[in-house]
Amino acid sequence: MNHKPVLEKPLRLIQITLAVLWIYQGLIPKILFHSHAEIAIWQSMGVELPLAKMAVSLSGVIEMAFGCSFLLWQRAVILHQLNIMGLAGLLGLIALTDPMQLSTAFNPVVMNIAMLVLSMLAIQLLNVSKQQA
């Protein structure tokens, strides 16, 4: 039995969800509001305030572009692999630079693990879909 049509809807939902989350994370806290926590992370690495603000904005643009890539390349396993590695790396960076963030409500652990698992599910769905082809 061909399950490929059944797999397309959840896969599309995962792609759209990841795109929206990455675009939101880039636009709202980084570009529009320059999150103090994000700026503090850059400053903890020795970056001066004006440059830290620019780095936060630049990382927001990169996150938005990455989010858009989930809409453009909906069958690319490599995007999900990069997402998994990137989110794990970002979580590690937060643990090293500002471990107190890990104890707050709606902290990076919650968001990163949820997004990481979505990519793991997408890879599984893409692999099953390829086997059905």
Automatic annotation (TrEMBL):
Keywords: Membrane, Transmembrane, Transmembrane helix. InterPro entries: DoxX-like. It comes from the Bacteria. The keyword Transmembrane applies. It holds the Pfam family DoxX_3. The chain crosses the membrane at residues 12-33, 54-72, 78-97, 109-126. This is DoxX-like family protein. It comes from Acinetobacter kookii.
